[in-house]
Design goal:
Blueprint lengths: L1 E6 L8 H11 L5 E6 L2 E4 L3 H7 L6 E7 L3 H15 L3
Antiparallel strand pairs: 1-4, 2-3, 2-4
Helix pairs in contact: 1-3
Length: 87
């Protein structure tokens, strides 16, 4: 299992469109990908879960990955959250 911290950089947080980007990125990997915010775990492959997370700008979240490609998944998710959602 890997854990990496990330800060939500997007001015609008993770709303519908960015949540879809998170799900698409997480779904590229075989590993289980969870996002932890405020002590709650959210399945990064579920659009409903990511939208329920209600992450806003400057929230610190933790990416937890478990599986064959866990390191690549964790790195990709952190990069997406910190760089890819900024529009």
């Amino acid at each position: 299992m890997m854990e990496k911290k990330a800060i939500v950089k997007s001015e609008s947080g993770i709303h519908a469109r960015p949540a879809l980007a998170v799900v698409k990125e997480a779904s590229k990997f075989k590993s289980e990908v969870l996002i932890v915010k405020d002590g709650n775990e959210y399945n990064a492959k579920s659009i409903v879960a990511i939208m329920c997370m209600a992450a806003v700008k400057d929230d610190e979240i933790t990416i937890k990955t478990t599986g064959d490609d866990e390191e690549a998944a964790a790195v990709a998710m952190v990069k997406l959250i910190e760089e890819g959602l900024v529009k």
